[in-house]
TrEMBL record:
Entry-linked PANTHER family: C-C MOTIF CHEMOKINE 3, SMALL INDUCIBLE CYTOKINE A
Pfam families: IL8
A GO cellular component annotation in the UniProt record: extracellular space
GO BP terms in the entry: immune response
Subunit text: Self-associates. Also heterodimer of MIP-1-alpha(4-69) and MIP-1-beta(3-69). Interacts with CCR1.
Keywords: Chemotaxis, Cytokine, Disulfide bond, Secreted, Signal
Record's signal peptide: 1-19
Function summary: Monokine with inflammatory and chemokinetic properties. Binds to CCR1, CCR4 and CCR5. One of the major HIV-suppressive factors produced by CD8+ T-cells. Recombinant MIP-1-alpha induces a dose-dependent inhibition of different strains of HIV-1, HIV-2, and simian immunodeficiency virus (SIV).
Protein name: C-C motif chemokine
Length: 97
């Protein structure tokens, strides 16, 4: 009985140590279905030490969705969002008089 308790304690400590190396902002599965690009406000890639390589899309409502970075629609959305962020409209303070 005593050895069983010791074994369980060792297993518990090992599992806590293994979980400590996974960043908080990791994806563990991909969202099913496409997210309309008009609803996406930003995106980022998960860190390299995450178990699943993913892109995270953040929507207007603040929801975050993990998507497959290899999917063609994800690549198109990222390209469109990157292009939108590089095009900044000129304001009155930017005009030379």
């Amino acid at each position: 009985m005593r050895s069983l308790f010791a074994l369980l304690l060792v297993l518990l400590l090992c599992s806590v140590q293994l979980g400590a190396h996974v960043p908080l902002e990791c994806c563990f599965k991909y969202t099913k279905g496409k997210i309309p690009v008009a609803r996406i406000t930003s995106y980022w890639r998960t860190r390299s030490n995450c178990p699943v390589k993913a892109v995270v899309f953040k929507t207007i409502l603040g929801k975050q969705f993990c998507v497959n970075p290899s999917a063609s629609w994800v690549k198109q959305h990222m390209k469109k969002l990157k292009h939108q962020n590089t095009l900044k409209p000129l304001g009155w303070n930017n005009l030379a008089i």
